């Protein structure tokens, strides 16, 4: 049964399913966000956001290795670093935790990819609530939400009004657009149940 048919039949994902997403490999070159397509689909369904948005953001955040050991070393060198496969900063996580009564802690993001993806999906849901229904046409709604994920809600709302993003935000947006088709392919494979997507088995 595909993920879509499970949802249509009322067999929605359970919170316990998130524990099944394996820890990313320690070798930086071996990490592929597409391996987490099942976890993305579960997290997006629970949060009520687009799986394609979440998966594309995950690809955008794959610029550094995400193994728990490497993230611990990174935090030792840079205490304010973000954690988890979705690169969430502590202040952002704490807002999401309070808003949605999450049981975990910020440090859990580095050890639990499913939890990190679920928190990212909830954050995107919160950003969507803060995004005006009407916005400039140069960006899609998902693009603005991705920019909000990267730069914060206040900047997202400014971009929606027509303020031009700075160089780093423009680079993030270019990568988001470039990863869109790869993210869609990963989700399609997971929905078909194609072999090879073993991260959530």
Automatic annotation (TrEMBL):
It comes from the Bacteria. InterPro entries: Lysozyme-like_dom_sf. This is Lytic transglycosylase domain-containing protein. Residues 1-30 are annotated as: Disordered. It comes from Streptomyces murinus. Gene3D superfamilies: 1.10.530.10.
């Amino acid at each position: 049964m595909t993920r879509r048919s499970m949802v249509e039949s009322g067999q929605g994902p359970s919170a316990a399913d998130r524990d099944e997403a394996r820890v990313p490999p320690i070798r930086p070159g071996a990490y592929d966000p597409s391996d987490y397509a099942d976890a993305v689909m579960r997290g997006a369904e629970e949060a009520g956001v687009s799986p394609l948005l979440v998966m594309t953001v995950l690809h955008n955040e794959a610029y550094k290795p995400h193994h728990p050991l490497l993230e611990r070393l990174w935090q030792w060198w840079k205490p304010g670093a973000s954690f988890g496969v979705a690169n969430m900063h502590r202040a952002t996580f704490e807002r999401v935790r309070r808003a949605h009564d999450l049981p975990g802690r910020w440090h859990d993001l580095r050890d639990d990819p499913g939890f990190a993806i679920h928190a990212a999906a909830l954050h995107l849901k919160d950003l969507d609530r803060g995004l005006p229904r009407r916005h400039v046409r140069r960006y899609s709604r998902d693009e603005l939400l991705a920019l909000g994920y990267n730069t914060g809600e206040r900047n997202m709302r400014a971009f929606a009004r027509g303020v031009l993003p700075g160089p780093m935000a423009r680079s993030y947006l270019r990568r988001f657009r470039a990863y869109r088709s790869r993210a869609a392919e990963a989700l399609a494979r997971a929905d078909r149940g194609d072999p090879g997507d073993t991260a959530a088995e």
